């Protein structure tokens, strides 16, 4: 199973990201656009795992979920270049709580035999991959991202798989964060 840890979004955020994606698509020559129902924030991609490893990862999820609920805020449109193609994403404002959750996850994964991530964590929500477009800079200037609040109430272990030949992200385990009164 191809799995990853993620923060899932409610329909309000997914609908908004879909609107932004529609604007992005109107400026693209081509691209592979994420399905609205698949919008999420990846905490850590783990790749292929067997059944026993997935059970261990469910425990890792429970171990790192002992933090309080927190909020994130959408920030800006961005891109990663790969040759003459790009990944287009929506970024998030810096968040100490998110960084602490990520660091705790990395530490716990390392204690469970997983290699630490080489790259620094750059939280983003992928709208499209393999995008060909004329001028991203024009699109980035033109597209203002509403600084909507994302309430993080749980974290999930997700499986990436094809269902009826369509890519789907299916929660294998979802753990609620602590609700402070």
List unreliable stretches of 5+ residues: none
Record field, number of beta strands: 9
As for the number of domains, it is 1
Task: Output the structural class.
Answer: alpha+beta
**Mean pLDDT across all residues, rounded?**
93
The best one-word shape is globular
Q: What is the spatial order of strands in the main beta sheet?
A: 2-6-5-4-7
Second-tier CATH architecture? Alpha-Beta Complex
Classified by CATH, the class is Alpha Beta
User: Distance N terminus to C terminus?
Assistant: 38 Å
Helix content: 25-40%
Count of helices? 4
Oligomer: single chain
How much of the polypeptide forms β-strand, as a percent range?
35-45%
Element order: H for helix, E for strand: EHEEHEEHEHEEE
Largest sheet: 5 strands, antiparallel
| Corresponding CATH superfamily | Cyclic phosphodiesterase
Pfam families: 2_5_RNA_ligase2
Motif (HXTX 1): 40-43
GO molecular function, one term: ligase activity
Function: Hydrolyzes RNA 2',3'-cyclic phosphodiester to an RNA 2'-phosphomonoester.
List keywords for this structure.
single chain, about 180 residues, five-stranded antiparallel sheet, 4 helices, 2',3'-cyclic-nucleotide 3'-phosphodiesterase activity, Cyclic_Pdiesterase, EC 3.1.4.58
Question: What would a concise description of this structure say?
Answer:
The chain has helices spanning 11-25, 51-64, 96-111, 136-142, and strands at residues 2-8, 28-33, 40-48, 70-82, 85-92, 124-133, 149-152, 154-163, 166-176.
List the helices and strands and how they pair.
Elements lengths: L1 E7 L2 H15 L2 E6 L6 E9 L2 H14 L5 E13 L2 E8 L3 H16 L12 E10 L2 H7 L6 E4 L1 E10 L2 E11 L5
Antiparallel strand pairs: 1-3, 1-8, 2-6, 4-5, 4-7, 5-6, 8-9
Helix pairs in contact: 2-3
């Amino acid at each position: 199973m191809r799995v990853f840890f993620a923060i899932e979004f409610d329909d309000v955020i997914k609908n908004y990201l879909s609107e932004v994606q529609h604007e992005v698509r109107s400026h693209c020559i081509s691209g592979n656009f994420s399905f609205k129902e698949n919008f999420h924030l990846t905490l850590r991609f783990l790749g292929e795992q067997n059944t026993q490893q997935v059970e261990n990862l469910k425990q890792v999820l429970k171990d790192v979920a002992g933090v309080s609920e927190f909020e994130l805020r959408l920030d800006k449109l961005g891109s990663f270049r790969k040759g003459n193609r790009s990944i287009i994403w929506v970024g998030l404002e810096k968040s100490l709580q998110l960084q602490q959750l990520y660091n705790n996850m990395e530490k716990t994964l390392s204690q469970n035999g997983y290699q630490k991530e080489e790259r620094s964590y750059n939280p983003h929500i992928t709208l499209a991959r393999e995008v060909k477009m004329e001028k991203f800079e024009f699109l980035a200037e033109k597209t203002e991202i509403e600084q909507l609040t994302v309430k993080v109430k749980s974290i999930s272990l997700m499986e990436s798989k094809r269902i009826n030949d369509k890519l789907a992200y299916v929660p294998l385990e979802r753990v609620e964060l602590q609700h402070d009164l």
